[in-house]
């Protein structure tokens, strides 16, 4: 029954993730830590498996629409994978409270940036299509690679530290500074998440920080949820879903703070 | 633009990810269902195989993209793929940070 509960939780995280473009890991890690009493480091390692699942499922869809810049993605992956592997090692020496505090801070930061954009998460810009119904992407040449690589290093580092995708950093950097069309930036960021998460997940696994009996039902649920979410996405007012996501994130951030202040006894 | 619009390349990479995700899904599901009826270490080992396959999927994706770049004689991106692959495999070889 424990597995069934985890599967259902992964399912809803997968739907929310596919509808909003935010990976399910952001929600799964604090829920595992707060409501299942799993040490935060294992919670991060375990939800990394779900993050890889989401990325594989969703980026195969983007790839088939030919909106992913594989060359740009793999170049930046040099930095994200390196950053993720390094912080994944370092996490082994981190205090639990520091990780919980960082995670609460990250949840707050993400909530604020989403609200600041008026609940718009995905690029909902009108995309011109040709007569075959294919999307048309204007010609571009990525600019300022050093800046892109530096931002990717930070995004990768955060991913290895907290088990998140780092999309909120990579997408704006590719779009604003590297002059990559938004649709391509989103797809390419998604594409990179799998490799970035794998770079840290391999280290977490070696350390015994991936709990297989929890990761398996979560990943199965997330996989089913993201398939359904991707189908629902065109038919649902994502704005309300985004507010629901922000509400959950704020609740989890608050709960993490209470958990921290009470010395971990509020679980 | 040379960076995009290589449908064949995209399709192969998408196929790797899709096959990886679906295989892991079915392997993990098998482990979960078996866990309902069998009470020894077999279901957990099946689930572990599913998790390891999931971790391996991005590695295979980098490997396949690297091979495709090299076949196109695109040495620059072949080397970049090799670099990413090296970082991924270093994590698997050196399991430091254990407690």
CA-based shape of chain B: elongated
Gyration radius of chain A, to the nearest Å? 18 Å
N-C termini distance of chain B: 50 Å
Number of strands of chain A: 0
Helix content of chain A: over 70%
Strand content of chain B: under 5%
Biggest interface between protein chains, with counts per chain?
Answer: A-B, 61 and 52 residues
Q: What number is the mean pLDDT of chain A? A: 85
Number of domains of chain B: 1
Q: Could you state the order of secondary-structure elements of chain A as H and E?
A: HHHHHHHHHH
Q: What are the low-pLDDT stretches of chain A, counting only 5+ consecutive residues below 50?
A: none
Quick recap of the structure?
Chain A has helices at residues 2-20, 25-35, 40-64, 70-91, 96-116, 145-162, 167-177, 182-206, 212-232, 238-261.
Description:
The complex is a heterodimer of chains A (267) and B (99). Chain A contains ten helices and no strands. Chain A has helices at 2-20, 25-35, 40-64, 70-91, 96-116, 145-162, 167-177, 182-206, 212-232, 238-261. Chain A is globular and about 55 Å long. Chain B is mainly alpha-helical and 99 residues long. Helices cover 81% and strands 0% of the residues of chain B. Chain B contains three helices and no strands. The chains are: A mainly alpha (267), B mainly alpha (99). Chains A and B meet through helix 3, helix 4, helix 8 and helix 9 of A and helix 1, helix 2 and helix 3 of B.
């Amino acid at each position: 029954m424990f597995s069934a509960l985890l599967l259902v939780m992964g399912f809803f995280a997968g739907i929310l993730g596919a509808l909003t473009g935010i990976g399910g890991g952001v929600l799964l890690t604090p829920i595992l830590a707060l409501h299942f009493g799993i040490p935060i480091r294992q919670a991060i390692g375990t939800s990394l498996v779900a993050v890889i699942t989401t990325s594989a499922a969703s980026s195969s869809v983007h790839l088939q629409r030919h909106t992913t810049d594989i060359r740009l993605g793999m170049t930046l992956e040099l930095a994200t994978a390196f950053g993720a592997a390094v912080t994944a090692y370092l996490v082994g020496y981190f205090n639990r409270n520091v990780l919980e505090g960082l995670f609460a801070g990250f949840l707050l930061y993400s909530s604020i940036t989403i609200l600041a954009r008026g609940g718009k998460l995905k690029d909902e810009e009108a995309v011109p299509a040709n007569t075959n119904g294919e999307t048309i992407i204007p010609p571009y040449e990525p600019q300022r690679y050093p800046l892109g690589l530096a931002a990717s290093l930070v995004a990768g580092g955060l991913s290895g530290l907290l088990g998140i995708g780092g999309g909120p950093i990579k997408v704006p950097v590719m779009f604003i500074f590297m002059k990559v069309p938004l649709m391509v930036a989103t797809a390419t960021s998604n594409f990179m998440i799998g490799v970035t998460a794998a770079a840290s997940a391999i280290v977490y696994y070696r350390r015994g920080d991936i709990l297989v009996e929890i990761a398996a039902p979560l990943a199965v649920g997330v996989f089913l949820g993201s398939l359904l979410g991707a189908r629902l996405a065109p038919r649902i007012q994502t704005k309300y879903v985004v507010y629901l996501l922000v509400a959950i994130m704020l609740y989890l951030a608050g709960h993490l703070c209470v958990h921290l202040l009470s010395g971990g006894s509020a679980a | 633009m040379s960076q995009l619009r290589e449908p064949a390349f995209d399709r192969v990479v998408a196929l790797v990810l899709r096959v990886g995700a679906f295989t892991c899904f079915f392997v993990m599901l098998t482990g979960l269902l078996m866990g309902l009826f069998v009470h020894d270490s077999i279901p957990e080992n099946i689930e572990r195989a599913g998790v390891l396959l999931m971790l391996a999927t991005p590695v295979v994706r980098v490997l396949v993209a690297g091979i495709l770049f090299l076949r196109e004689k695109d040495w620059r991106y072949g080397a970049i793929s090799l670099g990413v692959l090296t970082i991924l495999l270093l994590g698997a070889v050196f399991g430091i940070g254990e407690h």
